[in-house]
Structure formats: structure tokens, C-alpha cells
């Protein structure tokens, strides 16, 4: 049993904060796409190999797999820098799995990153990086 003040609780608290920041970033990213006429087809889509943050059908009918990277500062690098080559490979694998489960004929498929700066949570800054993979 974990104690209330033990180090495991501190790690869990950090994890809770990261999850809260991640979910907040995803909420802002989804709002960005819906404001542009897009539809969220999936959010936090889980597969045995991982999770897709957002799957969007944009206003032009293009399917967009969106990786959301939220940050509260730059001490760990920028949000876009966090999408490494191995992360891109994993997103492509997950996209293939999603497409297998959702076999509609998509006109175009794109891979985007939304970097969400939450250093001031009341005034988030979003940067959409389209077709980055």
C-alpha cells in the first residue's frame, strides 16, 4: 500500500499533471480543427500498440491524423521536437490500424502535429504543422 507522502505518490502526481496538460492540449487542438469546419472522428483512439491523439475529417474531406504535443515550457524542448522519427513511425503504424478498422475510402490522408504552448493556460498558443510526416 502506498503512503500519502511517499515518492510513488509524487510520481503519480506528476503523471496526473502531464495527463491533464495533454488532455487540455488535445481539447484545444480539436477546437482548432472544428472551428475550421472539421469533424473529430476519434480522440485518444487506443490500440494495443499505442494511441492516436486525434483523427479529423477536415472541411475539404481530407483525413488527418494529428499528434498533439502540449508543453508548459521549453525546458524539455519544443513540442514539435518531441515528435521523433520513432514516434512518427509509431503514428504511421497506428494510422494503418485505424484505417483497417475504418475502411471507408478516404480521398487523402495527412499527418499533422499541433504544438500547444500552455505556459499561460488562460491564453494557449497553438501552432499547426501540416503534412509533417
Automatic annotation (TrEMBL):
Gene3D superfamilies with a match to the protein in the record: 3.40.1350.10
InterPro entries: Restrct_endonuc-II-like (IPR011335), tRNA_endonuc-like_dom_sf (IPR011856), UPF0102_YraN-like (IPR003509)
SUPFAM superfamilies for this protein: Restriction endonuclease-like
Cross-referenced PANTHER family: UPF0102 PROTEIN YRAN
Recorded family membership: Belongs to the UPF0102 family.
Protein's name according to its UniProt entry: UPF0102 protein ACFFVD_10105
Amino acid at each position: 500500500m502506498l503512503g500519502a507522502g511517499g515518492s510513488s505518490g509524487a510520481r503519480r502526481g506528476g503523471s496526473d499533471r502531464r495527463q491533464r496538460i495533454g488532455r487540455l492540449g488535445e481539447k484545444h487542438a480539436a477546437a482548432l480543427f472544428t472551428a475550421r469546419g472539421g469533424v473529430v472522428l476519434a480522440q485518444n483512439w487506443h490500440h494495443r500498440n499505442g494511441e492516436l491523439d486525434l483523427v479529423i475529417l477536415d472541411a475539404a474531406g481530407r483525413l488527418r491524423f494529428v499528434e498533439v504535443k502540449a508543453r508548459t515550457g521549453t525546458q524539455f524542448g519544443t513540442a514539435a521536437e518531441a515528435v521523433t522519427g520513432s514516434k512518427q513511425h509509431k503514428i504511421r503504424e497506428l494510422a494503418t490500424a485505424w484505417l483497417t478498422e475504418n475502411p471507408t475510402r478516404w480521398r487523402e490522408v495527412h499527418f499533422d502535429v499541433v504544438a500547444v504552448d500552455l505556459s499561460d493556460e488562460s491564453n494557449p498558443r497553438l501552432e499547426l504543422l501540416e503534412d509533417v510526416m
